[in-house]
Amino acid sequence: MAEDSDQEKTEEPTGKRLEDAQKKGQIARSKELNTFAMLLTSASLFMMLGDGIGNSLIVMMKKQFHISREAIFDPTHLTIQFKQSMIDGLLLITPILATLVVIAIIAPLALGGWIMSWDAISPKFEKMNPIAGLARMFAVHGLIEMCKALFKVILIGIVSYSLYQRFILPLITLGAEPLEQSIHHGLDIISQCILILSASLIAIVLFDVPMQLMEHNKKLKMTLQEIKDEMKESEGSPEVKGRQRRMQMDMAQNRMMAEVPNADVIITNPSHYAVALKYDPEKNAAPRLVAKGVDLMAAQIRNVAIASNIPLLAAPPLARALYYSTELEREIPQGLYLAVAQVLAYIFQLKTAREQRQSEPIPPRDLPVPKEFKQS
After folding, report:
1. How far apart are CA 294 and CA 304, in angstroms?
2. pLDDT reading at 136 higher than 60
3. Percent of the chain with pLDDT over 90
4. Which of 117, 184, 251, 366 is deepest in the core (most CB within 10 A)?
């Protein structure tokens, strides 16, 4: 066991390992990809809906700043007007919020798929251990996350400074423009800034997605011993499989021996082979082999047949041909029809002679077994 624990995890995860990990909620995830998708979507929506939002804001401002004399002296007017403004504002941003909710659900499908696992959201008390938390912080993964966060801050800072240099003068001069023009111009500047800032995160995403895939694959890698244990667990140990095979063979033999008393004839070698044939012209087009065996099994078939008064016929070439050419519960091959027909004719004559207490017929000799069916 000590040697197993010291083995390196060098083998790729098996399908079962991946499936078990997915059931536990252990799949590759990139928070940066989800954040990038939502920011880029919101920026794109803001640019597409910017004119409509601007016009709606102008209408709202005109409505809110135009107050009649009667409304000034109405103590309930301010509350009603505030509620209406809140409703109008929510309706204005509802398309954007609804789209972002859909993106938040769909974005994880791009990496690892979307699953629901109670194991992943159930509380784990080991994660509340502060010592273990510190160990994770100073582990390689923690250092990578820290470097990534630092790079993100630097990147956004550089892009923000560039945007500041680019748009500071247009922002300062907004106050000199007419109201409606300044609102549309201001929204256009904001849309461009959000879009550029969101697009700049693509560098973080291109680094984070491969890293998360590699990290996930590394966590799921297996040792050779783990693969062997998994195969043993899924397929069963050789001892168990051996017992199962023996049980199946015993059950098959029991079913086969139960058919011997129903056979019409047992053809023997006479001592090494034994096959049992049954012919029902209403159900089968040809005689059917219901039991067969060699040596000890052949002796058991003969004993059951004798106890059940089933006729035995010694025909070595035919017995071997039937044994090797015909599976259990299958009809005999066409090439052996003539030989078996002579055997069944003899069995019919034998039964008739016994019923009428006459002398028994002579067993057939030199049965016509084709060369391709003969066994040495």
Report:
1. 15
2. no
3. 11
4. 184
Strand partners for 266: 276, 312
Neighbours of 238 (CB within 10 A): 9
Backbone phi, then psi, for 313, in 5-degree steps? -130, 125
pTM above 0.70, yes or no: no
Parallel, antiparallel or unpaired: strands 312-314 and 330-331? unpaired
Give the model's confidence band at 276: pLDDT under 50 very low, under 70 low, under 90 confident, else very high: very high
Asked if residues 376 and 321 have their Cβ atoms less than 8 Å apart, the reply is no
Long-range Cβ pairs for the range 87-92 (8 Å, 24+):
88/56, 88/60, 89/60, 92/53, 92/56, 92/57
pLDDT at res. 65: 72
Q: Reduced to 3 states, what is the DSSP secondary structure of residue 313?
A: strand
For residue 61, the model assigns a pLDDT of 76
More confident residue, 182 or 57: 182
SS3 state at 330: strand
First-to-final CA distance of the chain: 53
Residue 264 amino acid letter: D
Residues 3-31 as b or e (16 or more Cβ within 10 Å = b)? eeeeeeeeeebbeebbeebeeebbbbebe
Counting every residue written for the chain, the total comes to: 376
Contacts of 139 (CB under 8 A, 6+ apart): none
User: Residue 91: its pLDDT value, please?
Assistant: 84
